[in-house]
Specification:
Layout lengths: L18 E4 L5 E8 L2 E7 L2 E6 L9 E7 L3 E2 L3 H7 L12 E11 L10 E11 L2 E14 L2 E11 L16 E12 L2
Antiparallel strand pairs: 1-4, 1-11, 2-3, 2-11, 3-6, 4-5, 5-7, 7-8, 8-9, 9-10, 10-11
Length: about 190
Amino acid sequence: MYRLLALALLATPAAHASDWVVDPDASTVTFETEAFGGPVNGEISDFTAQISLDPEAPGTGRIEARVGVSSVDAGSSQFNDSLQSSTGFAPDDHPDALFLSTDIAEADSCDAEAPARCFVASGTLTIKGNTQPADLPFSLHVIDGRAVADGQLVVHRTDFSIGGSAWGDAASDVVVSIHIEADAAD
């Protein structure tokens, strides 16, 4: 669901945009939340992204990221069983989470150090058949044809019908952290 965020980026290139090929070995998607009074940290191993982005003309860019929800690993069989159930992600019926940008704009600031620049990809996030607006703020540093992007997406799990009544002690917010490394396409 979240590796997607890793931040992934999209398919149809627009004028002036640059296409990027994600390096899956150097990229990660992780998440953190709380349940039963303690932290829950995990990772997502199945994610892809198609990215078309020119930092000098971000409005022409597009990001499409896909996460295979069955690859979400919360580090314990108890949590994983709940996530893979019908009240969780229901992966048999909804195998993928998708982020599709509709706009990318440069942001005034973020936690990145120079020479990284800050952007926000606005669009939609679809999980378990539910589509909601989503913003993915990220920093971007490009050097010698290699881009490194780091961002976080806050997912309100109840907006996507994730979690049943037994999930009462689980936080409603999940922070998905994305680290994407990509090379300029030929």
